[in-house]
Amino acid sequence: MSEVNLKPVDSSAEWGHLPTAAREEIDIFETELRRVQAGLVDEKIFTEFRLRHGVYGQRQDRVQMQRIKIPMGRMSADQLVALADIAEEYAVGVLHVTTRQDFQCHFVDIDDTPNLMRRLAAVGITTREACGNVIRNVTCCPCAGVCTDEAFDVAPHAHAMAYFMLRHSDAQNFGRKFKISYSGCSEHGCGLGRMHDIGAVARIRDGVEGFEVYVGGGLGSLPHQAKLYSEFMPADQMLPLAQAISRVFARLGEKKNRAKARMKFLIAKQGIDEFKRLVEEERERLPADPRWESELQLALEQLCDQPLKPPSRLDAAGSQTPQFAEWLELNVHPQLQDGYSMVDIYLPLGDITSLQARQLADVSRKYVKDTLRTTVDQNLLLQWVSNEDLPGLFGDLAEIGLAETGAGRLKDVVACPGTDSCKLGITASRGLAAHLRKEFGNGMSAIAHRSDLKIKISGCFNSCGQHHIADIGFFGSVQRKKNDTAPVFQVTLGGSTRNNAESYGLAVGKIPSQNVDKAIVRVTEFYNREKRGDETLSDVVARLGKTRVKQELAEFMELPTFEESPDFYRDIRQPWQYKRSIGVGECAGEVVDQAEFLLEDADRIHFESTLDLERDRFGDASAKAFEACKKAADALLFTKGLWLSDRYDTVEEFRRHFCDTDSFYKPFADNFLRTAQEGPSEDSERARLRVEEATLFIEAAQGVYSQATDF
């Protein structure tokens, strides 16, 4: 690379119209990009640097995913047009809405990212801290300010938090990411406060606005439900509180073991009372910051949404087509303000094309005044639609293919990218979601519009698709039969988005990809038959127990051999075999049979541990979770030539063959070794953690086994 290209970038000649701070920040990013390309910057350092600018590596070589922050999901028509333009010019012409109300563009050339960022900065959008070990996009109920159930409008408070903590020096030394959400009420799932590092739920006490504050929540591979930090925190104290929490997390949070570096693990280690003491101590030491007040005041002044048109009534006597009537019933919701409605725009798989985005911007300008919102369910929402305009809005949305019903219903499946683009993907979660969408229009149409159940799919155990808080959740895994590997999904039941993610599900069993649609139908039939009154599915599962649920799904869990059903060894929407068959002789075949038996034992014992957990038999649950892991370890050791009759020490041999050789995912291996040293626990939270850890250890063992070639 020539010397001139390594000079600090100065884009002021072409981009001088941008705010100076934004322009200089992007210039620094481009300078560092050129330096790493010249071999002058350590790749590891640059990786975190680019992540903090929203540039994320994809599964495919030499292309990136660009994540774009949309704080609180609020955007204008002009911003939507700019997003459409960059998706078309730099990516593949599709904008993807995420579960954090962001947008993502895939298959971006990293050399295009600086100008992409500048184009967005021109309309007030940043990609800064969309990824990386920082505070991610602050999410907020998309109905804030117009919801009939809210305590008060939380949007200004979320806005103040987002921009106060953006680039804040106290939030730059985390071991892992950090997530914040705001909810206007306690009963719904718009903000999902109880699965966040900081979850703020609106409360009014003695006429004062404030928040019920939760801390230490998170999904990932080992989900933790947030702990109650304060029953009532005055609204004007939220910014210093977040700053103090950030300082404690930055100082005491894990830095070396990334699998244990989220704040949930720090709180689990310290205990909520000690953590609260540390935060309050830190809060007392904080020097007063005028921005605590000024950011909130600025947000209160800026976020005063206004309607484009006066309130009105829908002419019920006017001609209504069946299509409009269905859309009106399912997609339209009354606002707090009389004469106006909110309108859901359903985006299957969270995708909207650049053309549709531009057309939607035009439609929104016709009916509303910059009140477009993204949602955590990967859809869009229009606020402040005057009721008499609803027929016209429906017609215009229908013309651009955005009037489909289904947002917030069973057919509205949330899914992470999976193997489409994610490096960690095990199965095609988006492929499964697309398949289900097709089935919801055909054989599953009778249940498509149910509002009492939600489906969420992750392509691996990391819960990017939020499967833990779904009524019916799935996460990608593998299962081996003889010498062939099939894509399967672990089913999780017992989760719920209600009451800000009130419960997390546990794994029930594995379903081959080809059987997932049938399993969903069976679960809905089971729920219809067994529910009492207003029970949720999680209530029914808790009452009847997981054994009963597993019996319902047993016929769909069986994996046939490749010879019997080759389709079971192809991922959804993929015509090729998921993993090629490994040629082995008879002796090796016997070895495979024994390993499969041990892995089956591991699955069985692990399921028993979940039953003990739901019966409050915490010591038994903890002991069986470890026993299940030990069986899975024995299965892998069998492939190394060790027989159970050799009476070897499973823990030590596993350490020697898989830990010392780095051939097993280290965080999960460390959990196994630690549990072996600590022994069973009667503590309820620790027992649940052991069961969750066992799920992951066994899944990892299946993965190692499916790839084994030395037996």
Structure, explained:
The chain is α+β, with helices and mostly antiparallel strands and 711 residues long. A five-stranded antiparallel β-sheet has the order 1-2-5-4-13. A hairpin with a 2-residue loop joins strand 8 and strand 9. About 2% of the residues have low confidence.
Short descriptors:
single chain; 711 residues; alpha+beta; five-stranded antiparallel sheet
Mean pLDDT: 90
Lateral arrangement of strands in the main beta sheet: 1-2-5-4-13
Q: What is the terminal-to-terminal distance?
A: 48 Å
Portion of residues in helices? 40-55%
Quaternary class: single chain
Rounded to the nearest angstrom, the radius of gyration is 26 Å
Number of strands: 20
Query: How many H/I helices?
Result: 23
Strand content: 5-15%
Alpha-beta classification: alpha+beta
Given the C-alpha coordinates, what overall shape results? globular
- Please summarize the sheet with the most strands: 5 strands, antiparallel
Give start-end ranges of low-pLDDT stretches. 580-593
List the helices and strands and how they pair.
Layout lengths: L11 H4 L4 H18 L5 H9 L3 E3 L6 E5 L5 E2 L1 H14 L3 E4 L5 E6 L4 H9 L17 E2 L14 H11 L14 E4 L14 E8 L2 E8 L11 E8 L3 H15 L10 H8 L1 H14 L5 H12 L19 H10 E3 L5 E6 L5 E3 H14 L4 E3 L5 E7 L3 H10 L14 E2 L13 H12 L14 E4 L13 E10 L2 E10 L4 H4 L4 E7 L3 H15 L6 H8 L1 H12 L28 H29 L3 H21 L11 H10 L6 H13 L5 H24 L4
Parallel strand pairs: 6-7, 7-8, 16-17, 17-18
Antiparallel strand pairs: 1-2, 2-5, 3-14, 4-5, 4-13, 8-9, 9-10, 11-12, 12-15, 14-15, 18-19, 19-20
